[in-house]
Amino acid sequence: MTLATSLVLVLVAGLASQLVAARLKIPAIVVLIAVGLALGPISGLVTVNLAPSELSELIGLGVAVILFEGGMSLRFAEFRRVGKGIRRLTIPGPPVAMLLTAGVAHWIGGFDWPVALVAGAILVVTGPTVIAPLLRSAGLRRDSAALLKWEGIVNDPTAVTLAFLTYEVFALSEGGVGSILRGLFFAILVGGGMGAAIGALVGVSFRRGWVPGHLKSPLLLVAVLLVAGLGNHLQDETGLLAVTAMGLVLGNMRLAERDELLHFKEGLTVVLVSSLFIIIPATLTADDLRELDWRIAVFVLVLMFVVRPLTIALVTLRSDVPKPDRILLGWIAPRGIVAAATAGTFGPSMVEAGYPDGARLVPTIFLVIIVTVIAHGFTLAPLARRLGLTTGAHNGLLIVGASRFGLELAEALRRLDVQVTVADGRYQSLQPARMAGVRTYFGEVLSEHADETLAEAGVSHVLAATDNDYYNALVARSLGTEYGFHRSFQLSPGEGTGEKRALTFERRASYAFDGRSDLATLDAHVADGWRIHATRLTKQYGVRELIRRFGAEAGSVPIGAVDASGAFRLFSPDQRFLPAAGSRFLYLGRDKRSPATGAVRIVDDAVAGEES
């Protein structure tokens, strides 16, 4: 098989694995490693005909891009909130974890001390490429998520640097612990400082318009690779620290294109992770897998059930990290691409340096990755819920604009156990919603404060429903990048706006409901006594019959549906769907019982208690 064919096969297999994992709602790395093993040592379809040093360099460049993207996603606002906990996890955490893991690797895993110490350094990592998707699906509170995210992203380059310095001590010199500490200090001070300086320079050049818009993303990618290379030239494996610092600085600068750049890097990261987790397992051989024995299995279990909890207990001793967060941190530590790539680099190097146990390093690290990803991936959400660290089910609607119709919709959905938040920048406009017991947010929904606050509200859908059509488009498009454009809607500007004068579809969100009703029309209906009703659909009487017999004739406006599991969806002519039998169909209609449908008014005269 040619190199080009192998590359295409890897890309197709990697993205297909991501789709399968997303469909089955399981950690993607589990599928990726299984496919990599199937394509590599099992079937032999994918072979990597590169020298180990060349392959390591290519993998290192991919990991550099991944860690840069992780650094860009870190916000100083998170550090200000939970900085003490982050400092405990990222300063004393790596050396404590390294020494404890090395001891277990030696006394239980049977590794010689040099290889055990390198393994201990590698396993300091906690896999940001694994943590990030798990956090999105688990719905953790922002502070708990910040601790796991910062630990994963900051400790990864630290672990790689520690692994290299430890390898250097045993394979290249006799400098001892002092040499490791001096090298680590140099890497942080010089490598990290260089990365931060170049990140600031790139940010200033973007802000002042020195770089044309169409060149910013490609220039940034080249700059990341350049910084990684310069860092490694100063000292091997320092490049990862440099690009992480570069991403951290650039991500916290006031750049108009920050989100655009971050989304570009996120897409590239998905491709890189998918490819690397196919390529690296494909380099394993049957002989590598035979290196695994019962001692390695016990080592992995002790690592998970003893070393990790003990590490967190020691580094958070007498800290302000809440007990539930300590328990969660003590269990959740999945390893990812950085551990695999680093093991692939140092395992063969340790063998060449005269330490035969290095041959067991790569299969051992892969076993740790597989077991921790499966165990932690399937238990993060249940454990977080049990500890009270989640924001609840993400099945809520954010209504932007405190109008008569907005309040009517909020009250109706709240009575159907759908979480609703009404947001408005005018405090007095929110008073009716607060009096009705509806959760409210006062302020600009596109602010950083709103981003942090609404993360706790279980929001999954957005309806921009103000009297300004262009602001509605701005809000819906902006929030659509977070919640998904298929869950972001705005009200129609009304039939009076000509098609040529209206915003193009690419610059607006999907129109909600029937695609014609604007806010003035909906508010007028509510003022005339119309209310939101619910009708339970059956196999014999579905939404098509309902709309044909009742909706079109009476002028009622379809709103959405809540299915039997409680999941909520809005209607839109741009995103059509048919609610299944057992769903409750919601529509805005006149306040009377319909003999044709049995529609029941769900908004009564009772006023709920204060919840906002």
Would you tell me the structural class of the helices and strands? alpha/beta
Strand content: 5-15%
Q: How many angstroms separate the termini?
A: 62 Å
CATH-scheme architecture of the largest domain: Up-down Bundle
The value of Rg in angstroms is 27 Å
CATH topology of the largest domain: Na+/H+ antiporter like fold
The first-level CATH class of the largest domain is given as Mainly Alpha
Order of strands, widest sheet: 3-2-1-4-5-6
State the helical fraction. Answer: 55-70%
The gross shape turns out to be elongated
E-strand count: 11
**Biggest sheet statistics:** 6 strands, parallel
Brief summary:
Helices cover 60% and strands 8% of the residues. The protein has 612 residues and is of the alpha/beta class.
Describe it.
- There is one protein chain.
- By secondary structure, the chain is an alpha/beta fold.
- It has two domains: 3-43 and 56-386, Na+/H+ antiporter like fold (Up-down Bundle); 396-601, 3-Layer(aba) Sandwich (Rossmann fold).
- The chain is 60% helix and 8% strand.
- It contains 23 helices and eleven strands.
- It has helices at 3-24, 28-42, 52-73, 76-90, 93-107, 113-122, 128-138, 142-171, 176-207, 213-234, 239-251, 258-282, 286-290, 294-315, 323-331, 337-352, 361-386, 404-414, 431-435, 448-454, 469-483, 519-527, 543-554, and strands spanning 396-400, 420-424, 439-442, 459-464, 488-490, 510-511, 531-536, 557-562, 568-570, 584-589, 600-601.
- Strand 1 (396-400), helix 18 and strand 2 (420-424) form a beta-alpha-beta unit.
- The longest helix has 32 residues, at 176-207.
- It is elongated and about 85 Å long.
- It starts with a helix and ends in an 11-residue tail after the last strand.
